[in-house]
Amino acid sequence: MARLHPRKLVIAYFLISFLGMIVLMIRYGMNCPDSRSGNEDYRSILAKEESPLKQREEELNKLEKKLRTLDIILRRQFPNAVEYISQVLDDDIPTIYAVTPTHTRHVQKAELTRLSNTFLHVKNFHWIVVEDSVARTPLVTNFLAQTGLKYTHLNIATPSRYKMGENDPHWLKPRGVEQRNLAVDWLRENVNVNTSPGVVYFADDDNTYSLQLFEEMRYTKRVSVWPVGITGGLKFERPIVGDIGKVIGWYAAWRPQRPFAMDMAGFAVNLKLLVDHPTAAFDITVKRGYLESSLLSQLVKMEELEPKADMCTKVLVWHTRTEKPKWKEEDAMIAKGKPSDPRVEV
Fold this sequence. Notes:
11 helices, alpha/beta, 7-stranded mixed beta sheet, 12 strands, 3-stranded antiparallel beta sheet, 2 domains, Spore Coat Polysaccharide Biosynthesis Protein SpsA, Chain A, single chain
């Protein structure tokens, strides 16, 4: 067997290597696009990926143009609408604290139920229910726990000399005074107005409320006011607003000369104003009809009031009062020895 010369081995090695490289290049060229087609494929892939983004961007641009048009129209027709809408959509809006004094009676649960169904629709809402009793009752305790509302349950008994008799007319003595004052004191002690702004509204349980009313009052700076329907022997009582948008008097039949001749349901107070006046409170000793004035006179002057509800021309709350039940048939059933089951809560 002839021996191969080393020089021939080296040449053969390089020839085999060269041929191998050519084979690899041919295979690579067959399976990979050239630089031009590769760039085209890359651009095609990017275009496919960018297509949904561009579509979204175009949609957002169209919406932005519509919003700008709407902004212009609203500012022309309703100068404060844009600011108001943005405030309502803000999750950090002021809390409305509705203070409701309540006392045990046959229609109590029915009236609280009606109120709670309204309050469930109000954003950023806190219900403060204060019982006129020496202890919190199971009826109200259980009821509040099932409402789904954020609430605080308090109680304080009205002094016996100020309590209403069973057959006394509703106007004879001030009602709910101790209860409202306790709620205001609780707010002063438990809410930091610097970080949690709020508005206080005295929402009695015998009224009917429009949802619009709560948005009217939400941005009260000091004290806001509006009409109240079915009160004072009239279809409505209301503040009278002058040409420059300030309250100048009262439309009321009974003693319109009162400092604030309005119903308890006709105003709301910025919580900070109550905190800044730590001794301000309702006065249980005042004459008939002066309970509202006893508090407001310590907080604000008439010209500082903020008229709401389209300059006090719309009624958004009604002093409806539930009719006291007549128990003629109930008494007859008792006489027959067939009283109502006391275990059924009404």
